Structures are given as structure tokens and as C-alpha cells.
Amino acid sequence: MNGPAAVFPVDASGETRCMARQPRLDVPGIPQHVVQRGNNRLPCFLDADDRRRYLQLLRESSLATGCVLHAYVLMTNHVHLLLTPPTTGSVSRMMQKLGRQYVGQFNARHQRTGTLWEGRYKSCLVDSETHVLSCYRYIELNPVRARMTDDPMKFPWSSCAANCGHRNDPLLGPHFAYAALGDMPAERASAYQTLLRETLSEDDLRDIRNYLQQQRALGRDDFRAMVEAKTRRFAGIRPAHRPARAPSKASET
After folding, report:
1. Class of 32-232 per CATH?
2. What is the pTM of this model?
3. Domain positions in the chain
4. CA of 103: how far to CAs of 99, 107, 111, 167, in Å?
């Protein structure tokens, strides 16, 4: 007989340690779209100082692990990041370091205890050839979809203004898909602004959300085949619901 599920402690980053948890898809040099949410949808930033502290710790942790950050947004109760790791496990180490330090400082500053994050962060691999720039746009347009601003370049807690050429941001390193938009920085920024004005389709939005929620590999079929060959794990998404079974005779009466 199976006993009750074992209860494991929660670490300082807010991630529950459990032997049975499935490892994430993780391939060196392949971008990852990461989201981390506040526990019970509660805010993880209470003021501008919290956000500044998070960004400073994000820079330190990305430098320490070699992860290259391409885009980010700090919402009220969650964070989106787009980054490329140099080795397997680099993103996990970065998020653990960042989460542990930020939660400790947040709790001390606001005189609270306990976890801040809602379990483990979620991540999905992103096809460099076809979907990276869509994820750039998805992340940086988040404040517009949330009706926090009409102009994503004016939202102070994202990478949008920097990627559009309006300010320097030491956190960022361009992905080669962004770098390919032009030979000069101004040319790249202008081309990206044009892309940003193009609305993401409902299909694009659905795919980005579904692949992130299921932590799979967002991209072409051959991209997912490559990921599956390297990781020996399924990289596509599964249907949200199983098809309904035909009613039995008993249920028909």
C-alpha cells in the first residue's frame, strides 16, 4: 500500500525540494523563457526599492553563472526573463542564487517571514531561429496587456527601452536573432521597434503560454526533435484535457 506523499522542506528561494520532481528541459546555448510568480498571486515587489534590489541581484547572479539575459519584465506579482545558459544547470543555479538572496532581503526589509515565490519557477526552451523575438515581444508587452501602460518603452521595470535604443542596460546581452536586425545599434533598435508595434497573434500568445506552462520546447518540429534527441524527453505539449469518453449504457438511463 502506498503511504502519504512525503513532505519536503521549502528552501530560501521558495522552491519545494522533492525527490520525485521532473527535471526541466535544459540544453546549453538554447534560450529559456522563465517565469516566477509570487505565492498565492501576492506581490513580490512592494515598491521601487524592491525592484531595484531585484535587478541588482539579477545582474550579479547572471554574471556569476554566465547566463546571458536578453529581455525581462518585473510585474507586480511575477517576473519574466529570457536568457541563454552556457551549461546545463546554469539557469537553475542562477534562479536559486537570485531567489535566495532576494527573498532574504525582502523579508528583512518588510519584516516578514516565509516563502515569497509560488513553488518552482517555470521555464521552456525557445527556438532561436523562429521564436526568440516573439518571446522578446511577449515579455516586453506584458505591461501593455496588463493595462499598466500604453507605451511599453515607458515602463521602467523592463528591458524594452534598452532594446528599443532609448537607454543602456548593463543587465542585457543581445541574442543573435536581435543582433541580426541590423549592422549598427540604431538600426537594430529601429527594426525592433517596428517589430514591437506588430501585435502578437492569438496563436502566438497561446503557444508561448502553453509551452511555458508545460515547460516544453517552443519552436519548429525539427527543433523539438533536436531537444528530444539531446534530452531523451518529450518536448511537445500535451492536450489540456483528455477527450470525453462516450457515455456508458448505465449513464444513459
Report:
1. alpha beta
2. 0.86
3. 32-232
4. 6, 6, 11, 28
